[in-house]
Design goal:
The structure holds two protein chains of two kinds. Chain A is 63% helix and 0% strand. Chain A is an all-alpha fold. In chain A, helix 1 runs antiparallel to helix 2. The mean pLDDT of chain B is 94. In chain B, helix 4 crosses helix 7 and helix 10 crosses helix 13. Helices cover 29% and strands 20% of the residues of chain B. Classes of the chains: A mainly alpha, B alpha/beta. The interface between A and B is large, with 42 and 62 residues.
């Protein structure tokens, strides 16, 4: 006998959530294909195929679940992964990244929803570590010669005033990672997800507010960062449901701290991976933040004083971790973090996660 | 808070119809808490309105809905019932003389108790206990017309068609309680009832306030209603009368009218028949103890548990029924014929929707985690005991996580632990 409730809302399943994310990403994906043609199209196809394959095989083998490719999350992971790459990343590395994203980003945690880190960003880190020479070479970003549709062709600017150039850069430009070509489409995708209630405003708002505020500080303006990359990460990755807090105040704090850590990393000289590092770092604290900022029960008088100290301690911990990442980056030791992560996750899967596969949470 | 698309279109404007009495009645013996004992013998002839079962104060009392013969004491599912066979002779016990103008709090309590009045909103809490307020002064008397269950229109129908009975009963209660302010809470989609309420109240010189409430779920929850009307946020477990507040459901108020003005016990109630698997949505006045098979047959629906889920109560908080003999109880505001729900049962994706919609501001997903782990300490520290079981979390969950099942299990574990620590 089933328990109440006996009705459910329409269009609200996990699949529908994933479908909406794909829809929101579609314009960004299409304009990228437009910009670099087959180069990017093949990257997407490779990532999606490998992600789906990895999902099916690994899920069947390790989780004994045979229909998880239907939930759509593998496609989302594959799309997000490619969006963070240069269009020149070789296909075998893309394939490796997609497989690593699925295995070390999701399956070994016990499947969808149980992962601590954003799978796409985890996959990206694996690529950077295991294909370091290619992934960190500056050649990778010399993409000018490969552009299929230059921005002048798409947006013939009537005059070459600063304003119209600025505007056209918002709509379409061809430099940076695959997902960074149109700020307009990134923002539209974000608005769509907000309207459909697939993301909440808390994380993007807090993140961007804190980051902008810090930019206004004296000396902050010379920072070198990509606005499109910042927005892409903010809207589509920092808001990833499994790896971000679930409580409203937790989301605000999480967004604020992500903004702060991004700022610290850029300031500390991290070149391309400040978004990944910042989000992955906060991912690690997500559950703790969620619980720390849980709402007080109805009618339970909130004692703010009691909450101040743990939040202060948590903030110190996160800042400490951010500076630790910065030091590791400085001494070129990030790869050891990934090695440790692999060791940790395999052990954890063997002794704990594999026994909880059928738990819903 | 959660808003559920309205499913009341079919029932909202319907008149209250009367239902032909069945030949067999099954009178429930489980009270609000504890069991009632039959005070009649098998084979005994009973008259309509005669007391047939009573229990400790917190359980309640049951009266014969018709005249007839006590056939057996039986169980359906695992609940106990008196099986009463209707003789269709409608022999009534005489109504005791009662002067509504002479009533005071003590007499009212006794009357409510004698008439077996229990909360009609679903909880079936004995109403006389609500009026056992000691020295507390009631400042606000709230009538809960927020029928937030998406299919139900029973209270709406009462306010629409039997408003004068409701207001007369309200006037008596107001006098007894020392003239507190009366507030009727109704939802926005029912706002046309406001004029009706105010006009009729004026006719009997009763000052009432009508507050329009948002169409959110669960607006009709007592604590949520109190907050909307008085701005007071009371913790679950507090007794509203200690804050000068008393809340009664519209259905309960209708039963109070019968008790006070006619000296008749609660033997019937208004039931909404509806659902997404029936084309016959109607509102009936049905006697307590009427088996649902009888209702379904008369309404051209039939007992078909393979294809349908039959639900007693509302779609959000009701119970699915596994026997056609199961009868209407004092708290059953609805009988729903619903399509079987296909659920996906994916993993929790931490979307936090359950937290967003929880009226008690809890973290339902954590209840699942800690119930699976048998972590009673955490269940307690995440305030599982504050859950009002409204089902909003399970409704919104995109992964169809078994939230309510885990919540119920967890609550059972917690109360078992509490009992153990008492011993």
């Amino acid at each position: 006998m089933k328990t109440a409730p006996f009705i459910k809302p329409k269009f609200n399943s996990t699949q529908k959530v994933m479908l909406d994310v794909v829809l929101a990403l579609l314009p960004i994906v299409i304009i990228a294909c437009f910009a670099y043609g087959s180069l990017v199209i093949i990257q997407f196809l490779t990532a999606i195929t490998v992600a789906l394959l990895a999902e099916f095989v690994l899920s069947a083998f390790l989780l004994k679940k045979y229909n998880t490719i239907l939930d759509g999350s593998a496609v989302v992971t594959a799309l997000l992964l490619v969006l963070t790459l240069s269009p020149l990343v070789p296909l075998h590395i893309v394939a490796f990244g997609a497989a690593a994203a699925i295995l070390f980003g999701k399956i070994l945690w016990g499947g969808l929803g149980k992962n601590t880190f954003n799978p796409a960003l985890a996959g990206r880190e694996f690529m950077s570590v295991f294909f370091a020479s290619i992934m960190t070479s500056s050649e990778l970003w010399k993409t000018k010669g490969f552009v299929k549709t230059p921005s002048e062709q798409l947006l013939p600017a009537a005059d070459h005033s600063v304003f119209s150039e600025y505007l056209s850069a918002m709509v379409y430009k061809t430099s940076g990672a695959v997902g960074e070509y149109s700020i307009l489409f990134i923002v539209l995708g974000g608005l769509y997800l907000l309207l459909r209630n697939r993301i909440s405003w808390h994380i993007p708002f807090a993140l961007l507010a804190v980051f902008t505020l810090l930019l206004w500080l004296p000396g902050g303006t010379q920072l070198h960062y990509s606005t499109a990359g910042l927005l892409l990460g903010t809207i589509f990755m920092a808001t990833d449901m499994p790896s971000s807090p679930a409580t409203p105040n937790g989301k605000l704090y999480y967004g604020m701290m992500t903004g702060l850590v991004i700022f610290i990393l850029i300031k500390g000289g991290v070149q391309f991976e400040y978004m990944s590092y910042a989000i992955l770092l906060l991912n690690a604290f997500s559950h703790q933040i969620s619980i720390q900022f849980r709402p007080s029960a109805w009618g339970d008088p909130t004692d703010w004083k009691q909450k101040v100290e743990p939040v202060f301690n948590l903030t110190i911990k996160i800042l400490g971790a951010a500076f630790a990442v910065l030091s590791l980056y400085y001494y070129d030791l990030i790869q050891y973090v990934v090695f440790l992560y692999i060791l940790y996750l395999i052990t954890k899967f063997n002794f704990s996660f594999s026994k909880k596969i059928n738990n819903a949470i | 808070m959660l808003s559920i698309p309205s499913l009341k279109k079919e029932t909202k404007k319907k008149q209250i119809e009367s239902l032909e009495d069945p030949a067999d009645f099954y009178i429930p013996l489980s009270g609000y808490k504890g069991m009632m004992e039959p005070v009649v013998k098998i084979g005994e002839t009973v008259k309509k309105y005669q007391l047939i079962a009573e229990g400790p104060n917190i359980a309640g009392k049951m009266h014969a809905p018709v005249s007839g013969i006590v056939n057996a004491f039986t169980t359906i599912g695992n609940k106990a019932f008196i099986h009463l066979i209707n003789d269709f002779r409608e022999i009534e016990i005489p109504a005791p003389y009662f002067d509504a103008s002479q009533i005071n709090l003590e007499i009212l309590q006794q009357t409510l108790s004698d008439c077996g009045i229990q909360g009609a909103g679903g909880s079936q809490f004995p109403t006389h206990l609500k009026y056992t307020i000691g020295k507390e002064k009631i400042n606000t008397l709230i009538f809960n017309g927020a029928e937030c269950e998406p299919y139900l229109s029973s209270d709406t129908a009462l306010m629409q068609y039997e408003i004068s009975e409701l207001l007369q009963a309200a006037k008596v209660l107001q006098n007894v309680l020392g003239s507190p302010e009366i507030v009727f809470g109704i939802e926005k989609h029912n706002k046309t009832l406001k004029t009706l309420l105010l006009e009729n109240a004026q006719k009997i010189q009763l000052a009432v306030k009508v507050q329009i409430l948002p169409d959110t779920y669960p607006q009709g929850g007592e604590l949520q209603l109190i907050k909307s009307i008085t701005k007071l946020e009371l913790r679950k477990g507090t007794i509203p009368s200690q804050y000068g507040i008393l809340v009664n459901n519209i259905g309960t108020l209708r039963a109070v009218y019968d008790a006070v003005f006619k000296s008749r016990p609660m033997i019937e109630r208004i039931v909404t028949i509806s659902g997404n698997s029936t084309s016959k949505s109607r509102i009936f006045r049905i006697k307590i103890g009427t088996p649902i098979a009888h209702i379904l047959n008369l309404n051209d629906n039939h007992w078909n548990p393979e294809k349908q889920t039959i639900v007693m109560g509302g779609a959000m908080m009701g119970k699915s029924i596994d026997s056609p003999l199961q009868p209407i109880e004092k708290g059953s505001g609805g009988l729903l014929i619903l399509k079987k729900l296909k659920t996906a049962a994916n993993n929790c994706i931490k979307c936090g929707f359950c937290i967003d919609v929880c009226p008690q501001k809890l973290m339902p997903l954590e209840f699942v985690r800690h119930n699976i782990d048998d972590d009673l300490k955490s269940l307690h520290s995440f305030n599982l005991q504050d859950c009002i079981e409204c089902g909003a979390c399970a409704y919104i969950c995109p992964s169809d996580v078994a939230l309510m099942e885990n919540i119920f299990e967890g609550k059972i574990k917690l109360s078992a632990l509490a009992e153990k620590s008492l011993q």
